[in-house]
């Protein structure tokens, strides 16, 4: 059973890997579409998982500093959600798409680094080992029920975010049926 920090870092690394595969697939629009869909899917689920599980823990255990950090992180997530929503309407592999996606990834690198350097090192000691493991499980479980697309107009704090997410999930899952994702062979060759 992993700590909360380990679970979050693993997600961050997955995002970077999917983006790297997108970049490597330059010139192959089908592959780029599959990798960008996988990337967007992961980012959307990760953001909601943090907003439902991690940020309330920061607010509860870190006092005003935790509230301030969580609010800043939610603002940064909002920027990413808005950009992902724009990207869903663009053609994969175009200059505009690539530029917007690079902006998102640059922003995410900075945001993720801040979480790993500042937020999580403050939170983990307050949680303790067992509570951190429980939070990691909750984070992973929440991602299974989180929307798979960015919804910038949704609330970003529980309980309203949770309710909106549960309502959006079936629609997102239906959309996913019509999207292409990396095949097992593509993942093996990554």
Structure characterization notes:
The protein has 190 residues and is mainly α. Helix content is 80%, strand content 0%. The protein is built from seven helices and no strands. The chain has helices spanning 4-24, 29-61, 63-87, 95-127, 129-144, 160-177, 184-189. Helix 1 (4-24) packs across helix 5 and helix 2 crosses helix 5. The radius of gyration is 16 Å and the shape is globular. The model has no long low-confidence stretch (mean pLDDT 87).
Compose a concise summary of this entry:
This protein has seven helices and no strands. It has helices spanning 4-24, 29-61, 63-87, 95-127, 129-144, 160-177, 184-189.
Biggest pleated sheet: none
In sequence order, what are the helices and strands, one letter per element? HHHHHHH
Mean pLDDT over all positions:
87
> How many β-strand stretches?
0
Radius of gyration: 16 Å
Compute the number of helices.
7
Shape: globular
What class would the helix/strand composition place it in?
A: mainly alpha
Residues in helix, %: over 70%
Write the layout of secondary structure elements.
Elements: H1 4-24, H2 29-61, H3 63-87, H4 95-127, H5 129-144, H6 160-177, H7 184-189
Helix pairs in contact: 1-2, 1-4, 1-5, 2-3, 2-5, 3-4
Please tag this protein with its features.
mainly alpha; 7 helices; globular; Hemerythrin-like domain-containing protein; Hemerythrin-like
């Amino acid at each position: 059973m992993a700590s909360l920090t380990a679970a979050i870092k693993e997600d961050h690394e997955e995002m970077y890997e999917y983006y790297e595969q997108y970049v490597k697939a330059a010139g192959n629009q089908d592959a780029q579409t599959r990798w960008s869909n996988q990337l967007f899917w992961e980012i959307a689920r990760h953001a909601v998982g943090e907003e439902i599980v991690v940020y309330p823990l920061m607010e509860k255990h870190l006092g005003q500093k935790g509230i301030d950090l969580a609010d800043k992180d939610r603002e940064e997530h909002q920027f990413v959600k808005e950009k992902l929503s724009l990207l869903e309407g663009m053609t994969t592999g175009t200059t505009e798409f690539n530029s917007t996606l690079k902006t998102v990834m640059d922003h995410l690198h900075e945001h993720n680094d801040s979480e790993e350097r500042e937020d999580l090192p403050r939170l983990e000691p307050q949680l303790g080992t067992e509570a951190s493991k429980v939070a990691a499980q909750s984070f992973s479980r929440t991602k299974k029920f989180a929307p798979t697309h960015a919804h910038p107009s949704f609330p970003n704090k529980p309980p309203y975010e949770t309710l909106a997410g549960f309502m959006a999930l079936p629609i997102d899952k239906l959309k996913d049926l019509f999207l292409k994702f990396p095949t097992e062979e593509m993942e093996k060759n990554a």
